[in-house]
Amino acid sequence: QAGLLYFGAATDTPGQRERAPYPQSYAQYDAILADPDEFGQTTPTNGQKWLFTEPSPGVFNFTQGDYVAERVADGGKKKLLRCHAAVWHNQLAPWVMMDGNATVTWTKESLAEAVQRHVSGVVGYYKGKCYAWDVVNEALDEDGTYRRSLFYEVLGEEYLKLAFGAAAEADPAAKLYYNDYGIERPGSNKTAGVKRLVRMLKDAGLRVDGIGMQAHLHADNHPSKDDLLQTMKGYAELVDEVAFTELDVRIRLPVDETKLAMQKECYQKVVAACVETEKCVGITVWDFYDPFSWVPDVFPGYGASLLWFEDFSKHPAYDGMVETF
Ligand code: XIL
């Protein structure tokens, strides 16, 4: 972990993370997660999302988020907590979208109030516990324009301002991040969009401390180290820190040695680029144990994207990263 503030792994609550009923106990998983020599940071993959934290209007529930927030004390050496994600168009509580069978009709005023209440409620509850918050997640389309989410359709870019403003007020010490996927390459429209979005917020007088690159990458078609360095250089002109927030490197199944070698190279490039970038504070893998990865559900035919196989042996990428740090 030389140079970086942390290397971490996201995790989820038992019951949410298992893709299939799983016969064994999780003692081995829990021990790896807790081991301070493995991870110095964690993120709840799901528990702080709107669906769980505000299941009915104004009614907050932090059971799922707290399960992971409490894991920072496991293993005897306190981990950093990255908090995720205050405003996102996915995994919203149903009441935000639907009332019975009908789409909820929001006005600018009512939705602004709901966003404000949600961000204040959730970020406020975790005040002092989060090293960083992904305040807004995935606000952009592939072409770098704003995603036509409910928030954008009703409020325009105002919702981004509201969210960052409310987060800054609710937890002045947390680093406030804009987080997105597919923003790891320097020349893309989406990368340009991120810079525009962050500049817009800063021009409006809002605090944005960091840009989070999710980095859900492919073993056989991944950014070069130079790409990563150049992308981060661009972001570093705008913000104090950058981070790889949801790193995984998927493989088209079946797994073989060649693909695992490409995966290892990809993981190594991320580590090398982060280590060489002054403002790159850390790397988070999106869980560490293949059976708990989101990849096979969302990208059929892909898997083995993390660092521990199902039998708890390690991917070659594990030693590859250790050598690179
Ligand atoms: C994913 C979780 O890993 C899954 O368990 C869940 O079903 C869907 O969300 N970008 C993000 C993350 O910002 O919150 C997503 O996490 C993966 C993509």
TrEMBL record:
Localization (cell): Secreted
Catalytic activity: Endohydrolysis of (1->4)-beta-D-xylosidic linkages in xylans
Domain spans labelled GH10: 16-324
Classification via PROSITE patterns: GH10_2 (PS51760)
InterPro entries linked: GH, GH10, GH10_dom
Pathway note: Glycan degradation; xylan degradation
Name this protein carries in UniProt: Beta-xylanase
Species this chain originates from: Canariomyces notabilis
